[in-house]
Amino acid sequence: MIPRYARPEMTAIWSPETRFRIWFEIEAHACDAQADLGVIPRENAEAVWKAKDVRFDVARIDEIEAVTRHDVIAFLTHLAEHIGSDQARFVHQGMTSSDVLDTTLNVQLVRAADILLADMDKVLDALKRRAHEHKDTVRIGRSHGIHAEPTTMGLTFARFYAEMARGRARLERARHEVATGAISGAVGTFANIDPAVEEHVCARMGLRPEPISTQIIPRDRHAMFFATLGVIASSIENIAIEIRHMQRTEVLEAEEFFSPGQKGSSAMPHKRNPVLTENLTGLARLIRMAVIPAMENVALWHERDISHSSVERGIAPDATITLDFALNRLAGVIDKLVIYPENMLANMNRFKGLVMSQRVLLALTQAGVSREDAYRLVQRNAMKVWEEGKDFKQELLADPEVTSVLEPARIEEQFDLGYHTRHVDRIFARVFESDPL
Amino acid sequence: MIPRYARPEMTAIWSPETRFRIWFEIEAHACDAQADLGVIPRENAEAVWKAKDVRFDVARIDEIEAVTRHDVIAFLTHLAEHIGSDQARFVHQGMTSSDVLDTTLNVQLVRAADILLADMDKVLDALKRRAHEHKDTVRIGRSHGIHAEPTTMGLTFARFYAEMARGRARLERARHEVATGAISGAVGTFANIDPAVEEHVCARMGLRPEPISTQIIPRDRHAMFFATLGVIASSIENIAIEIRHMQRTEVLEAEEFFSPGQKGSSAMPHKRNPVLTENLTGLARLIRMAVIPAMENVALWHERDISHSSVERGIAPDATITLDFALNRLAGVIDKLVIYPENMLANMNRFKGLVMSQRVLLALTQAGVSREDAYRLVQRNAMKVWEEGKDFKQELLADPEVTSVLEPARIEEQFDLGYHTRHVDRIFARVFESDPL
Amino acid sequence: MIPRYARPEMTAIWSPETRFRIWFEIEAHACDAQADLGVIPRENAEAVWKAKDVRFDVARIDEIEAVTRHDVIAFLTHLAEHIGSDQARFVHQGMTSSDVLDTTLNVQLVRAADILLADMDKVLDALKRRAHEHKDTVRIGRSHGIHAEPTTMGLTFARFYAEMARGRARLERARHEVATGAISGAVGTFANIDPAVEEHVCARMGLRPEPISTQIIPRDRHAMFFATLGVIASSIENIAIEIRHMQRTEVLEAEEFFSPGQKGSSAMPHKRNPVLTENLTGLARLIRMAVIPAMENVALWHERDISHSSVERGIAPDATITLDFALNRLAGVIDKLVIYPENMLANMNRFKGLVMSQRVLLALTQAGVSREDAYRLVQRNAMKVWEEGKDFKQELLADPEVTSVLEPARIEEQFDLGYHTRHVDRIFARVFESDPL
Amino acid sequence: MIPRYARPEMTAIWSPETRFRIWFEIEAHACDAQADLGVIPRENAEAVWKAKDVRFDVARIDEIEAVTRHDVIAFLTHLAEHIGSDQARFVHQGMTSSDVLDTTLNVQLVRAADILLADMDKVLDALKRRAHEHKDTVRIGRSHGIHAEPTTMGLTFARFYAEMARGRARLERARHEVATGAISGAVGTFANIDPAVEEHVCARMGLRPEPISTQIIPRDRHAMFFATLGVIASSIENIAIEIRHMQRTEVLEAEEFFSPGQKGSSAMPHKRNPVLTENLTGLARLIRMAVIPAMENVALWHERDISHSSVERGIAPDATITLDFALNRLAGVIDKLVIYPENMLANMNRFKGLVMSQRVLLALTQAGVSREDAYRLVQRNAMKVWEEGKDFKQELLADPEVTSVLEPARIEEQFDLGYHTRHVDRIFARVFESDPL
Q1: B307 classed as catalytic
Q2: FRET partner for B30 with CA separation of 20 to 30 A, picked from A51, A411, B289, C431?
Q3: Residues C73 and C144 grouped into a single domain
Q4: Which residues constitute the domain of residue C140?
């Protein structure tokens, strides 16, 4: 976790305090279920809830762990300090540490996913608003970095919206996948604990019982979760790269917002760096790097080995905290992105009208000119634009061989931008009014 | 693609012949739609179907491409050789190469997914059958590679079934995600082609129209697809590792099938190597390596750059062909896996009864012995097993301090394996009778 | 291996013919050494060389392997068909298949590295030539995609040269690392074969004996090899990205070479796509994806498991063939890259002289103006350039407050590009006349 | 950074205090060099050193950064608070932030590498000692997890030594590669600063001048650094996997050290889990995950984009801290690993003598028995071992057809373990007395 790329709400999920709180809840709910089953006295189960409002003392637990060398035992010892060791003696009965640890991890991942879903909503809101704002703001579409045909800035925002909406839908699924808990004992056979305990604890913690666990919850669920974060990160990178391109000096179709009071660049007004989107590009790599280790974590030995644990201590907080930060940064960037429609037009007209050469070619052939002749006509006028800086439309209008087949009005028509934007509403309907996946 | 790890049906999807066939179908359906719209003459649309049964000549198309340096143009030129260049002149009108290429890729991925789903069914069938066959075959559960408590071989198969069933459900979603097509023109604005063409072509090719495309279909869909394959591969590795452990000389609880006629090892009957599952372990790495490049492919420049293309020429066939092979190999391995229940029992009893020490401890405390005393009693008898090779149950029965609190029958009870298997049916019901995800 | 991204010389290294040829040589040299030791008759060793000029029949070997299910045995059987089974009976004595397979892999990797080193020399030659050609071709340096200060195109080429030279030096080391062979028997103890055989075979095959092998040569060597290819691939991507940026419509400082006869774009002269460097960007991802599996291959079970084998069947040919292709393509791109110095100047002067604002600021403070005042003076003139399109130098010359502290000649001096290029020779000396690492 | 997997010395390298300290030194040395050149007054350069013993106030710098939004400016402002803003006014002259930041990163990486090299020495010392201790401790060699032929525990340690020694040699190279600094100004042209400053600063900071930098030091150097850490991590995993296998219940040839006072397992003496090596397996994944992002960092836009920065804020501390921890843990594990030679013998003799079947086969053929007959003789006796638990040697001695060609003494000879260990000294000489690479 890199402090400057972390937000408090998400960071809190991964704090020792939160972890101990979840452990407590799992143990307390398990005691309730055990009392329901008559396995432990009701009184002892109720006694556990005395610690309901305790803020567990992390330093003290660490101190105990230094002796016991076992985190769950250290916690249970500390818990007994609060509720009395006699009352505490049925806590954790029939359970293994993994029952607590794995269920807790999934509670944390579910909570993290909920924050991320809300983050994505912010990004989606911003994208949707900007898409509608610039629905008809014409700019040049580019393939290979080279001008192709006109499109609109709204379509650019709309496609990022569609991509992020898919990401959100995937994240909901990934959240669902890790929303399982297990209280199944040493190797998952429920030998020392009734499945009813698992059912009760899971229901209270907002989880489903894992249909079949060993000592642990199977890690393909987590691999899918982190893979999903990796795809979302890649979509963030996709948007970031677009904005970085738009802001580069020669293009300047947009800029990350610069507060008027922001120091520094008025002596070099051209020097406003897209540092937020560059940062997002890097953060995407950081999030994505969790994917392969998460997959390597799937193949554990027999009913469990603990190699996955250190990996998850790293990637679970890091990937969720970083993605949370990145999504929020992205929402802000999109929300306040400064768009320069006039520069978009200027860029599009850089080679005066040349971008319409394809359409003119088509118009000529449709007017009955052979493909070869149409090509020759377009080419000779295009070259004057390219080499002499002439205006393509004017050249065509001045070329008698062209005007003999295409009336001036027909030539003018080919340069009508409305031609390129007439399906925008239809595309918007597809994007904003249908299911994302 | 590594020939020895490839099956013909999947390989065929990625052959030039199949690719050209799909290109043909897309172009022909597009012509139909254009004729419906009145954009091109019906007669020309119909003429295209004359090539319906043509097996396109790959060598000839390559020859043309060597001149035109453009694969789609080469194909269209060759197509014209079949249907006559006059009839062919409306083919591809208003489309870009990417319309054909991207739609084709998704058709191929969908078909590949269909094969993979059928493959997974084979794996699931084998796992289910073996799970029920060995539902009550007791073996020792292991955590950290160390004996823990008893479980059953059926539970092992059942958890692999549950994991693979999740993988299958994810693959269905991934298949759905890439089941889109796009016929939207140079930058996705439908400037030169009506959206109705896209709708018609997609319907005929078993796809949905991509809600918003640029020149290309967005690559987050494909990233998710390959990430899903990566998770499935990791689950294959998980099963493979289990089997490799079971087959190692000191464990020998199972062996990959060895046909009786199979040459070689009878002079060294201990030397039957789990080469198939070792191979699967390696194949999992090969499949997984497609994940990161697929994610790196998401962030393309503006409306498209073509950097994704070479990556997909590699990973699309390679990952699907390798996974298809691996799933089939895995189905065979599971189907014919030779299980040694007697060795399972022998392994479990390696430290005569010691595996039950936890239960005895619990029984003693439940019988009123203090935790400290119970621990001492268990320990002193356990040590005789560990150091002198004694039998744990016999030692307990001979220890008056133990028998003073636990009757012999109660002691015997603790060694009843039925205790560990009594929830197997309930777990099986969860696994085999509920939704996988 | 993707045929269109493969060159015959590198592909040949990975053909079955080459593999069998290397197997033959290893076996034949081993027989010589065994004869030297008196372990086998000299006559039998000599007889093996009868097959010296045989081109082994791959189909026949495959046929035998279909029966024996063992590739090395199949080969030996076929070899015996050439030299007589009686003469052949001492071939392979005391060796394991892995002795042949692992030594062969390293021979192949060494040969592949030799081709790659030659490829890198081509890239280096092209970069060096272009660096000197454009040593003083001034262009704007950019940070964050935004204009910063002037640099030269020669420096750009020179830094790519320095990076590739480092890559080449690393590849030499990686080549050295895999240049080992092992003929050490079943678990590496030389129990059935004298170390002298290994020494002889290695010497003849251009390898060093692996100091300690098990059944196999340790895979950290190979992990380092593929990691090195991954870094080189990343440097290729670095160059490719630069060129793609230079070619984008709004920048147009360079273009990939377009042969005058090349079809297609004269009607759209702006539409020359940097498809080669986009392709290189994708190929870099393909090469890089070998790195993680190669690292996952290091941890094998005990003296060997065969999980690495399938991985290497994929990545060894794929990564080397793709890198060979990429380096050659890159050399061609650099060699023929069309540079537009006039566009470089035009881009630099896009905001007429504004790029020199920093220098003017410095000159003012050095002339005794306070930092605040200097900033104010620069800013008010900069803003006229930015907002009204004025020329920065002219505005400064017309600003009496500026000219009161800076004489016109001093102002002119600040716009002298020579200021930025005066250390180029020194940097060139560092790059081209010193050790790369 | 995961606190529980971090050691203070390495963590300190990445603290803000250390970073600011290095910044200070770079700035102070740069001032000296500028004074030498006569660019700034000597007095001002000397004044900077007044802060020589200052422990910079991180909170105060953060406070300033909150306003300036620029870390280097915040630091310089704070520095001026110590040495007086008048004296401080020449600090940083002609430099860019990246000159400081990139040079600092490399100083940190060099220091981290020095710690890691010392760590590796600890690992190497332990491996060497244990190798010699168990040079002749015979154990079974295994391929595919299946018993093959005898080897020794010393050879196992020796091969890990050789692998780690290679890793160390690679790390020295990687350290050398990142031991460069750059003080070259905005785009690397030295426009505003003389190269002599760079030379002076680098010499003082233990670095070489980067031959050609842009705004930044090229990232292929860092990619190679992290790739090297990834290979070392994979070698750690290799050793960890071996130990985990040795400790599994059925094998039990070694155990991680368990202090006699260590709580917990004496009631279950079989339950000593190899948690340290399982942890190392996971840590290896964490370290390795830095490799791909480091490679993705190489291709930056033009003279720099800042996408690499966030990545490095994560991976530079995380990968070095984790590897430092892992190497120390590994050294401890190896140092104290409990070896069970008697279990090694017991495992080897599991199938009484069967492991020698290959040698007997060879002895028979060398005694003139045809290959087919020899095979038949071995097989029929082997089967009695496999199926009836007989002793292979005794069966052979009792088989008249065998004894008719092999005298009892010859048969005994085939079971002599010295045969397998006679080249150990020679291998040790290769490993411990020669160059690692």
Answers
A1: no
A2: A411
A3: no
A4: 96-187+211-259+268-350+428-437
Cβ-based contacts of D295 with chain C (< 8 Å): 230-231, 233-234, 288, 291
DSSP string, B95-119: --HHHHHHHHHHHHHHHHHHHHHHH
Reply yes or no on whether the pLDDT at C264 is more than 50. no
Q: Are B35 and B201 in contact (CB under 8 A)?
A: no
Average pLDDT of chain C to the nearest whole number: 94
Judged by CB atoms closer than 8 Å, whether chains meet at B272 and D142 is answered as no
Residues B437 and B407 in one domain: no
Q: Where are the alpha helices (H) located in C337-370, listed in sequence order?
A: 341-348, 357-366
> Cβ contact (<8 Å) for B234 and A177?
no
Any A CB within 8 A of B181 CB = no
Q: Are C98 and C113 contacting, i.e. CB atoms less than 8 angstroms apart?
A: no
The DSSP letter of residue B389 is -
Q: What is the pLDDT of residue A258?
A: 82
Query: For the segment C37-81, what is each residue's pLDDT rounded down to a tens digit?
Result: 999 999 999 999 999 999 999 999 999 998 888 899 999 999 999
Q: Which residues 6+ apart lie within 8 Å of B191 measured at CB?
A: A149, A150, A359, A419, A420, A423, B185
Give the residue numbers of D annotated as catalytic, written as ranges.
144, 265
Q: Confirm whether B244 is domain-assigned.
A: yes
Same domain, A291 and A187: yes
Answer yes or no: is B263 within a domain. Answer: no
A305, D68: Cβ pair inside 8 Å?
no
Q: What is the DSSP letter of C147?
A: E
Claim to verify: residue B294 and residue B347 sit in the same structural domain: yes
**Per-residue confidence band for D67, with pLDDT thresholds at 50, 70 and 90:** confident
DSSP category for residue A304: B
D237 → chain A, closest CA residue: A307
Residue of B nearest to D382 (CA): B267
Write the CATH number for A24: 1.10.275.10
User: Has residue C195 been placed in a domain?
Assistant: no
Statement to judge: residues C33 and C125 lie in one domain: no
B390 part of a folded domain = yes
| Cβ-based contacts of A248 with chain C (< 8 Å) | 142, 145-146, 250
Residue B267 CA to residue B306 CA, distance in Å, equals 57
CB contact under 8 A, B302 and A143: yes
In D, minimum Cα distance to A16 occurs at D3
The pair of three-digit structure tokens given for residue C90, joined into one six-digit string: 């001492």
Could you tell me which chains touch chain C, where touching means 3 or more CB pairs under 8 A? Answer: A, B, D
| Mean pLDDT of successive 10-residue stretches along chain A, which has 437 residues | 94 97 98 97 96 93 89 93 91 94 98 98 98 98 96 98 98 98 96 96 98 98 98 98 97 89 61 95 98 98 97 98 98 98 96 89 88 88 90 95 94 93 97 92
Structural domain ending residue among the three candidates B69, B93, B117:
B93
Give me the CATH number covering residue A406: 1.10.40.30
Q: What pLDDT is attached to residue A158? A: 98
Q: Distance (Å, rounded) from C-alpha D175 to C-alpha D168?
A: 10
Chain C hits for D300, CB-CB cut-off 8 Å, are 238, 241
What is the per-residue pLDDT for D358?
85
**C244 at the A interface (CB within 8 A)?**
yes
Closest CA to C256 of C324, C329, C321: C329
| Residue A273 contacts D, CB cutoff 8 Å | yes
Q: Residues 6 or more apart from B147 whose CB is under 8 A from it?
A: B140, B141, B347, B348, B350, B351, B354, B355, D249, D270, D271
Chain A contact present for D279, CB below 8 A: yes
How many domains would you assign to chain B?
3
Q: End of a domain among C69, C93, C117?
A: C93
Interface of D with C in 359-398 (CB under 8 A): 359, 362
CB-based contact (8 Å) between D163 and chain C?
A: yes
D146/D19 same-domain check: no
- Within 8 A of D234 by CB-CB distance, chain C residues are 220, 223, 295-296, 298-299
Judgement on whether residues B45 and B148 belong to the same structural domain of the protein: no
Does the predicted interface ipTM exceed a cut of 0.90?
A: yes
CATH number at D342 reads: 1.20.200.10
